[in-house]
Design a protein that fits this description.
Strand content: under 5%
Structural class: mainly alpha
Shape: elongated
Distance between the termini: 27 Å
Number of strands: 0
Length: 120
């Protein structure tokens, strides 16, 4: 459940970055249009800028679809009908708790990942 939620928040961050990228590429494309109209750049450069802008826009619906699927997965895990999930902290705000000094090394033997490594 926790990893599904962290994945959801990670997807939210990816969508935010993709939106900013699309906005930036759109502004860049507008500048290239003006430069092309004034004869400062070739049509090839304009087409390249347009292609980058459209490619950035094309990633948005895919990310939104994946986010909806992740929300539905979480709803299923929670035993609810599919739908939006309330958000809490962003991925950037997730931090591992500090391990206090002076803990006995016997505690490591209780960790499942260490047990698995030991058995392997």
């Amino acid at each position: 459940m926790a990893s599904a939620y962290v994945n959801l928040r990670d997807l939210d961050k990816q969508l935010e970055i993709a939106k900013r990228t699309a906005e930036s590429r759109g502004e860049n494309y507008n500048l290239f249009e003006l430069r092309f109209e004034k004869g400062a750049i070739s049509e090839t450069e304009l087409v390249q800028a347009k292609s980058e802008y459209e490619q950035a826009l094309a990633t948005l619906p895919l990310l939104e679809k994946i986010i909806a699927q992740q929300e539905n997965l979480l709803s299923l895990l929670l035993g609810r009908n599919p739908g939006p999930i309330l958000r809490g902290k962003t991925v950037d705000e997730f931090v591992l708790p500090a391990v206090p000094a002076g803990l006995p090394s016997d505690l490591l033997a209780n960790r499942p990942d260490i047990r698995l490594a030991e058995q392997t």
